[in-house]
Each structure stands twice: as C-alpha cells, then as structure tokens.
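thread: overnight batch results

M.L. [08:02]
morning all. the overnight job finished for the chain we discussed friday. pasting input first so we're all looking at the same thing
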Amino acid sequence: MNIPKAITASQAEAGVKIDHGLDLAVIGNCKTAALVDPTSRLVWWCFPRFDADPVFSRLLAGDEEKGFSDVVLDGMVDYKSDYIRNTALVETILTDAQGNAVRITDFAPRFRQYGRMFRPPQLFRIIEPIAGLPRITIRVRPTHSYGKPLKRSSLGSNHIRYVEEQSTVRVTTDAPIAMIEHETPFVLRRPVHMVFGHDEPYPGDLAATATSFAEQTKAYWLHWVRRLYISYDYQEAIIRAAITLKLSNFEETGGIIAAHTTSIPEAPGSGRNWDYRFCWLRDAYFVVKALNRVGATQTMEDFIGFTLSLATSSDGPLKPVYSVVPNLPLDEWIAEDLKGYRGDGPVRIGNAAVEQSQHDT
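M.L. [08:03]
and the structure it wrote out:
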C-alpha cells in the first residue's frame, strides 16, 4: 500500500479506470470493517457488523459502478496510500498535473470512553486540501440487499439519507450536500468531514468530533502496539499483521471471522467462491495463537468466552462454523445482483459448511 503510483495526464483526461485488484487496506474497530483501495475508494463495507449486508459492495460488482464512495480529483496524475504507522487509519494523497493535492484520511472509531470501549458501526472520512486548490467530486453510491442500488430518500442541511425497507444509511457531512447529491465537482478550499452510519442525527461540531475521534483512535492503536512483544526482525510486517488479525475479532461476542469478505475466488473461473465472514473454530484458534505469541492475549480471553457460550447452549457436538452472533442461521444462497470479483461469480452469502462434519474442529 505504500508504493506511490502514477497515471499519465492523457489517461487522466480520458478518465481511464484503474483496476487495483486486491491491493486494499482494511480499516475497522472490531465491530465493523471496510476495504479501501489506493485511490481512497471505499469498495467494501458490511454494515452494521462483519457479516451484514454490504453498503459498499463495489469489490464484487463486476463492471458495474455501484456500491462505493470515493473522492475524484480532476486531472489526477499521481496517488499514494498507506496506513498511518502502527494504526488502523489509512491516509491517501491524490495529486493533479498542476501540483494541487488532497489528503483523505479514513478510519473507524475505536478508543476507550467512560471506562468502556467505544466502537460504533461508523466510518469517518476527513478530506483536506494540502496543496493549491484541488477540484474534487465526492461520490456516494451505496447498495442494499446484496447489490441493489440504495436510492436517496431525503436531504437535510448536513446529511443525506439512503433508505429502503430493510436498510437506512445516513451520511452526515459539512461538505456541500448538493454537490454530493449531483456528483458535481467543486474546489476544496477547507477540510470537509463525512460520517457513514445509522440514521441518527449527529450532535455537536462535526469537524471537531472527526478530528478528536481520529486522534483518539490513533492513540488507541499506538498504545495497543506499544504493548506487543516483538523482536526487531520484521517488526513492521508483524505489527501490521497483528493489527489486521485483531480487526477480525468481533469483540462483542468474542467470535473471530476468517475474512472480511465473501466470494473472492480461490482460483479464477473455479466457482470456488465462499463466504468467510464467519467464525470457524479451527481457524480462530490460529488467530488466537498468533496474537498470543506477540502478547495480545485479550483476543484469546474473548474467544474462550465465545466457545463457552457455544458449548453450554448446545446438546450436540460443536459445529465447524458459527455466525459472530452465535446460532444465527448461515443458510447459503447466491446474490444475483452482484456479478463477482472482476465478474468471476457466483457471490455466495452464508456457508453450508455449518452442516458439515469437520473432524479437525
């Protein structure tokens, strides 16, 4: 993620699409998580938890331009993206041919507040001009019911509500609402802030809140990393792996998901596309073991609580896989409105492995 990339001015002028594949960063807070591509496009976000319906589903939408949110810089010729060191915050810088530049910071809040962990199912985005007068377009195109466009229902002075029967998402922002609604370019002269989350009014000063949440989330991760036991060799890679594994822990129950995504093909054209947004007891053991080796033992304690709840609520043998909220159904079905990663479907929701007998569990 930390290698600068560039496109030519002619490509930018022609609106050339850039396929980043699976070169994605993960942001999250142990309740929800999103994937961000190197140009700051949010391409995957299940809301309000790991195994829920994706609000952003572009990763699996084939060639269809739906299920994402991004910031488009007019005439962009260079972009670079990386994690803020030792954290789960991602920073992206876009630059145009004249040297105008914009910085986008994405994160999910996570820090201690009032003696308990604060981890709302929200994504924050801070968009700042850092050179010249960048001209940007902010696009928000959410989906519901696994790939159906989530249409706008209403506008407020500082928010847009996207509503369907089973889904409501509110985007609260101090950016120009009309410009977002119509995807109209504007010159960014000051920082703007965005919050994606539940359909609830957002109290207080949004700019101050976003800045405060970013600093507190950064401080949380730096403190978490500082307590790890890591040798000098490969330290940066091990820290990044530890943070990523931690983000697979659904902290409310202690469950640990195998992946944040569904239906990334095991091999192109194989049809072996499975939903891994659930907790395999066997796989979770290896996550716990890896985190224990670097001194992050809280995940183990949470997972023990998860397995104890399973063991005491069932008369039969343990199943190989569970939802992060135990005993929710995992019926497997095909999402017809999503064409698959690079069009390589099917996209499966749920996992029939719950009915299997896997003796290594």
